[in-house]
Amino acid sequence: MTTVLYARVSTAEQTIAHQLTQARAAGYIIDEVIADHGVSGVSTRLAERPEGRRLWDILRKGDTLVVRWVDRLGRNYADVSDTIREFMRRGVIIRTVINGLTFDGATTEPMQQAVRDSMIAFMSALSQAQAESQKEAQRAGIEHAKTSADADAYLGRKPSYSREQLDLVISLLARETNTTNVSRESGLSRQTVLRIKEDPAEAERRLERWKQREERSRAA
Q1: In this predicted structure, which of 84-88, 109-113, 122-126, 146-150 has the lowest mean pLDDT?
Q2: Using CA atoms, how far apart are residues 51 and 37, in angstroms rounded to an integer?
Q3: Residues 200/167, Cβ–Cβ less than 8 Å
Q4: Rounded to a whole number, what is the distance in angstroms from the first to the last CA of the chain?
Q5: What is the largest CA-CA distance in the chain?
Q6: Distance between CA 130 and CA 134 in Å, rounded?
Q7: Strand ranges (DSSP E) for the chain?
Q8: Residue 111: CB partners within 8 Å, gap ≥ 6?
Q9: CA dist., res. 130 & res. 62, Å (int)
Q10: For the chain, which domains are there?
Q11: Which one of 81, 82, 126, 164 is least enclosed by Cβ atoms within 10 Å?
Q12: Sheet holding 102-103, edge to edge
């Protein structure tokens, strides 16, 4: 039985090492790490990613697939749901680092199956909502950069969080009301978590505006 961590690294702020550290801290013993670099989960299905395709080849019945969150498994609601169900049909157990969720196709008790399937639907819908929010923030940031005569004047303070931390906080806040716990798990101050909670769309826009500024600086 093999335990595989699948990591998707789409920005410079994300690292495989960080995701591996999180998985080990959650109690997982990882036998192998498979990672896709520079791949957007918003636009690319798991089966279309170079290393994502390997998962379908190497995982066998009884193996465990560990992911930071279910959004690593697809680009939208249908994609994530189909991926989880297909792995379960193959006898692969899926576990998440965040909140320690388990999706196991071996469950036979009807009530447990109903709870599991409802959880898959909820988590898949949440992942799509986060992806859509991220895309909207990116569009807003790009338009701002295009139309502003002096874009840097509207940047505000540089965000104290990375893309990975923002995604983590938004995911946690969807299920966790205690912002102190969210602060502890994300590594951000409670004040930062509260600002994200109050206006997650603005948090996305700030991150995108600074990303655009840094890209302009590199191109200059």
Answers
A1: 146-150
A2: 9
A3: no
A4: 51
A5: 62
A6: 6
A7: 3-9, 32-37, 64-67, 93-96, 102-103
A8: none
A9: 31
A10: 3-112 (3.40.50.1390), 119-219 (no CATH)
A11: 82
A12: 32-37, 3-9, 64-67, 93-96, 102-103
Among candidate residues 49, 41, 31, the one with its CA nearest the CA of residue 10? 41
pLDDT of residue 154: 53
- Least Cα distance to 164 among 207, 216, 100, 124 occurs for 207
| Amino acid present at 141 | G
Closest by CA to 126, choosing from 182, 155, 167, is: 167
Work out the angle at residue 55's Cα, subtended by the Cα atoms of residues 167 and 96, and round it to the nearest 5 degrees: 35
Q: Provide the token pair at 184.
A: 């502890």
Six token digits for residue 142:
């790009």
What pTM, to 2 d.p., does this model score? 0.58
Residue 84 CB neighbour total at 10 angstroms = 25
Q: Which amino acid is at 210?
A: W
| Residue corresponding to tokens 């199956």 | 113
Helix H or strand E encompassing 40: none
- Which whole number is the average pLDDT over 125-143? 61
Name the DSSP class of 130. H
At residue 198, the pLDDT reads 86
